[in-house]
Design brief:
CATH class of the largest domain: Alpha Beta
Mean pLDDT: 97
Strand order of the largest sheet: 15-18-19-14-13-20-21
Bound molecules: nicotinamide-adenine-dinucleotide
CATH architecture of the largest domain: 3-Layer(aba) Sandwich
Shape: globular
Length: 484
């Protein structure tokens, strides 16, 4: 069985063999690798090595464009090995191969984008008075910790790691226990390209290893992507040491379909927004808000479309793959069972057993209707291919429903009326709003993050570089040379 080592201080490190954790392929249930469960000492060692590497002149003397060139070279490497890396992600997460391919390309784009940005992160000068030059300089924050979830491992690792390296920081990544493989591939490539200690990879159980990292007094920033409860725990730990956090948390995002929408476009948009990665996407369109007068025809067509969605193992590259693991599968099948008893299921609602893949974690894509807007099915993240339908009659009602959860990550608006689209976009509480599309093809360049409990701060785009820099104001007094 392949044992995935951690990368600490430039060395490949295995933990205690007694505590190895299995990594499974969700499509087959097979164990495909094992990882170490890092100890407190491993974390201490990584932070110590990062501090030494960050303070050492070597890394400081890398020119900004040299950091950028390395990241761009990495993007080329990833593209050259895209098929191999896609298979790795597909087996690790269970997602259909073409969705894994899109993730690999997105990762290459992040390295390329932030590589290009590395020497364009500029400070400012501020006019004060004659004889005083006031410069605002952007410096790296220092040791940045990146805690990554299992649903888009390479994309989420790449987006924050690329920005942190571009700005000259030291990076420690803690990958999710279920999906460490592509982060290990990143570590393999970066290991001998960067000074040791500048990029490190730690593996292990989040609830054990996570707090060692987040409560460490010598780290300087945490980027956490994951669930709200874990995000709160991370923020509390960071607060003890006054360490800043960027939190990318969950969502229960609405797709709001008005009667004047282009129906074909809206229908396909709604399907894709919930089916992608089997609904295990922070920005999944998990609620459909549908205008009353088109409800019957829209839901009937939607149900027909759901019934022909092909579900299969990642490598067979169908529209939808399995859920990640047994825990998710047990949670979601129990919830669907109850929804069935309560009479909410329009279509789907059952677990799926696929011949030859009996140990995979498959469920039917599901539509729920008749749910009260305050019911947990309409309020909480399910993180599966489950779409909850809610109905509205007026624009104001649509807005109130859209804003009725604790989340505020993304919203989709489907309307051909320019007034409706703009007005609703201005009233919806969400970090990203899409009109007559959902996701804008990934949008590496677009700021991404949440209103309300969906998070703090923004990732992606140029603005994310600010997460990994701190501002220093330098005021320089000067005088004519003959007055010295
Ligand atoms: P999770 O919160 O369980 O775990 C996320 C990461 O945190 C994992 O690496 C885990 O090992 C680690 N972790 C667990 N306990 C920890 C602790 N006490 N301290 C520090 N780290 C700890 O989330 P998940 O189940 O892996 O991912 C799904 C969640 O992530 C969903 O809520 C989803 O919406 C969210 N998500 C958000 C975004 C975004 O960009 N906003 C992207 C993807 C996923």
């Amino acid at each position: 069985m392949k044992k995935i080592p951690m990368l600490i201080d430039g060395e490949w490190v295995h933990g205690d063999a007694q505590t190895y954790l299995d990594v499974k392929n969700p499509s087959t249930g097979e164990v495909i690798a094992q990882i170490s469960n890092a100890s407190k000492e491993h974390v201490e060692e990584a932070v110590r090595a990062a501090r030494v590497a960050f303070e050492r002149e070597g890394w400081r003397q890398w020119k900004a464009y040299e950091r950028g060139q390395l990241l761009i070279e990495f993007a080329h490497y990833i593209r050259k090995h895209a098929e191999e890396w896609s298979l790795l992600e597909c087996r690790d997460v269970g997602k259909p191969l073409s969705q894994a391919r899109a993730d690999i390309e997105a990762a290459a784009r992040y390295f390329e984008f932030y590589g290009g940005a590395a020497d364009k992160v500029m400070g400012d000068t501020i006019p004060i008075e004659d004889g005083l030059l006031n410069a605002v300089v952007l410096e790296p924050v220092g040791i940045t910790v990146h805690i990554v979830p299992w649903n888009y491992p390479i994309q989420i690792t790449a987006r924050s790691v690329a920005a942190a390296i571009a700005t000259g920081n030291a990076v420690i990544v803690k990958s999710a226990e279920d999906t460490p493989l592509t982060t290990h591939a990143i570590a393999e490539w970066l290991a001998d390209k960067l000074p040791k200690g500048i990029f490190q990879h730690i593996t292990g159980l989040g609830r054990e290893v996570g707090p060692y990292l987040t409560s460490h007094p010598d780290i300087n920033h945490i980027t956490f992507t994951g669930s709200v409860p874990t995000g709160i725990a991370v923020m509390k730990a960071a607060a003890e040491n006054v360490v800043p956090v960027t939190l990318e948390l969950g969502g229960k995002s609405p797709n709001i379909v008005f009667a004047d929408a282009n129906m074909e476009q809206a229908l396909e948009g709604v399907v894709r927004a919930i089916i992608q990665n089997a609904g295990q996407t922070c920005s999944a369109g998990a609620r459909l808000l549908i205008e009353e007068r088109i409800k019957e025809s829209f839901i009937s067509r939607l149900a027909q479309r759901f019934q022909v969605i092909q579900v299969g193992p990642g490598e067979a590259d169908m529209e939808m793959g399995p859920l990640l693991n047994e825990q998710q599968y047990t949670k979601i099948t129990a919830l669907l069972q109850q929804a069935k008893v309560d009479g909410y299921v329009v279509t789907g609602g059952e677990p799926l057993t696929l011949a030859g893949y009996e140990n995979g974690f498959y469920v039917q894509p599901t539509i729920l209707d008749g749910v009260d807007p305050n019911d947990p099915l309409a309020q909480e993240e399910i993180f599966g291919p489950v779409l909850t339908v809610l109905t509205f009659s007026t624009v104001e009602e649509a807005i109130a429903l859209a804003n009725s959860t604790d989340y505020g990550l993304v919203a989709g608006i489907w309307s051909q009326n320019i007034d409706t689209a703009h007005y609703v976009a201005s009233r919806v509480q969400a970090g990203q709003v899409f009109v007559n599309n959902y996701g804008a093809a990934g949008g590496i360049q677009m700021p991404f993050g949440g209103y309300k409990k969906s998070g703090i701060g923004r990732e992606k785009g140029f603005v994310a570089l600010r997460n990994y820099t701190q501002m220093k104001n330098i005021a320089i007094r000067y005088a004519p040379p003959n007055q010295h």
